Amino acid sequence: MRLSTVILPVHRWSEGREMWWRAEQLGFHTAYTYDHLSWRSFRDLPWFGAVPTLTAAAGVTSRMRLGTLVTSPNFRHPVTLAKELITLDDVSGGRVTLGIGAGGTGFDATALGNEAWSPRERADRFGEFIGLLDQLLTHDVVTHEGEFYSAHEVRNIPGCVQRPRLPFAVAATGPRGLRLAARYGQAWVTYGDPRGPKDVPVADCPGVVRAQMEKLEAACAESGRDPRELDRVLLQGSTSERPLDSVDAFVDYAGRYAELGITEIVLHWPIPDSIFEADMAVFEKIATDGLSQL
Asked: pTM, whole model, 2 decimals?
């Protein structure tokens, strides 16, 4: 099992750079950030762009992987996103993972002046979005005419440092998204029950993830993919479990999910006076000692 973190882009870089540097010193496998225009309780607070933040983070780190958790079609187009990702992969020396999902109904969904898409349209768009992005990141020249996204003789030279492209970590819980994870993903991402932490008792949380993983394995079997080829990533913070209360609480939490087959746990970097508030000393102790106690 690997341990990673997600650092929300809520700090001016004069303060944020220390967190990304510190994340590498603590030994985190990957440091991710949310890719939104704004997000929930942080909507009226500082919030910076994901790709520029990761580009800056690449300059203050050298070993740790970097990524989004997650990018969605809500306000992005595959053509422009591909160019940014190729550049970021080059700047970081091939350390980028793209977390990607269908998006939701939050503030990003209507920021460009459109009505929020229905669940069916989000799924339709996501399928076309990820397919075109895969082409753009693996071919020098791409032309595509789709229902939602098009590309006309788009050049992406020299391509990604990572070959054939940077890895996709596909966030999905529904059948269509899981099929996309099986087809395009190098990893699968879950945050537990999509209904939210208040709706699922602590004791039931692992069962929810277990059921999702069974559906993922079925999707892999349908597409002829060995499910063992996919890393399985659990984002902490969206279930009612509290692994950051103590090192023992984390060991208990991580052990349950390791038994299920989760290969990477992502912890939120503490943010004071927010839903991600946690004791920084405990957080750092978990980062350095937690996995060794499993």
From this structure: 0.96
